[in-house]
Specification:
single chain, 249 residues, mainly alpha
Length: 249
């Protein structure tokens, strides 16, 4: 017969020793955590405590440019146009400004943006033209004429090319129109603009203005313009003969 098998049971002392060994390992591991944190310099996280905000990387300020200023001026101009079209009644919000006050504020804002754009790019035409249109309608014709008079024209000296660009020529024609309307007949700016127009488009384009100057007896201006368009000196013999025929001398 096979011998009966007996199952050995661990004594209570052996079980206690095993449990005690596990607890001892856990205690050693817990004691090692602060030491490891001290070595690595990390702080143990605590639940419910917010971490300090990290510094945000800063970038240098960008210099002002032409296009954003021009865009801001156009947006404000559109708002001014909508205000005039809609004529929104007051009383919808507490103590609102009147339409007249708001329009005046917008006009000042538009002028500031256009002026900034002109200072950044004085040879670009859009800001001058749009600001002059605003000034003529909202401020005065004199203000628009004075603005155009400050435009820095550049004449092309290359042979075979137009002396004045089309954009420059538009501003020259506006100067002529405004200065003639303001009767600034003896202003050198008017003489310069009329000469530029006459050279590029022919003396016939100035016929109406010439008649106005003749009726006002502004003979000196007439002689300067004719001589300038002809690219001759005012005392040139040919010019003197022409001026005598016109009874300007």
């Amino acid at each position: 017969m096979p011998a009966p098998q007996t199952t050995a049971k661990a004594s209570p002392a052996a079980k206690a020793a095993a449990v005690t060994g596990k607890a001892r390992v856990a205690t050693v591991a817990a004691a090692a955590r602060p030491a490891a944190a001290a070595v690595t310099g990390a702080k143990p996280s605590k639940p419910g405590v917010d971490q300090p905000p990290q510094p945000v990387e800063s970038f240098p300020a960008q210099p002002p440019t032409y296009e954003p200023r021009l865009g801001l001026a156009r947006v404000a101009s559109r708002r001014l146009a909508l205000l005039k079209e809609n004529n929104t009644p007051a009383g919808q919000i507490s103590s609102p400004p009147t339409d007249t006050e708001l329009a005046a504020q917008l006009v000042n804002l538009i002028q500031q943006h256009y002026t900034s754009a002109i200072a950044l790019a004085p040879r670009l035409h859009d800001a001058y033209i749009e600001l002059a249109q605003l000034l003529e309608h909202e401020v005065s014709l004199e203000a628009a004429a004075d603005l155009y008079a400050r435009f820095p024209f550049v004449r092309c000296q290359e042979p075979g090319k137009p002396e004045t660009s089309q954009d420059d020529l538009y501003i020259e024609s506006e100067i002529t129109r405004m200065f003639m309307k303001l009767k600034r007949y003896r202003d050198p700016v008017l003489v310069r603009s009329m000469i530029s127009e006459g050279r590029e488009m022919g003396i016939g384009i100035l016929t109406k203005h010439m008649e106005t100057l003749d009726a006002a007896s502004e003979y000196k201006t007439l002689m300067e313009v004719y001589a300038g368009v002809s690219r001759k000196a005012i005392d040139d013999p040919e010019m003197i003969g022409f001026f005598k025929i016109k009874y300007w001398l």
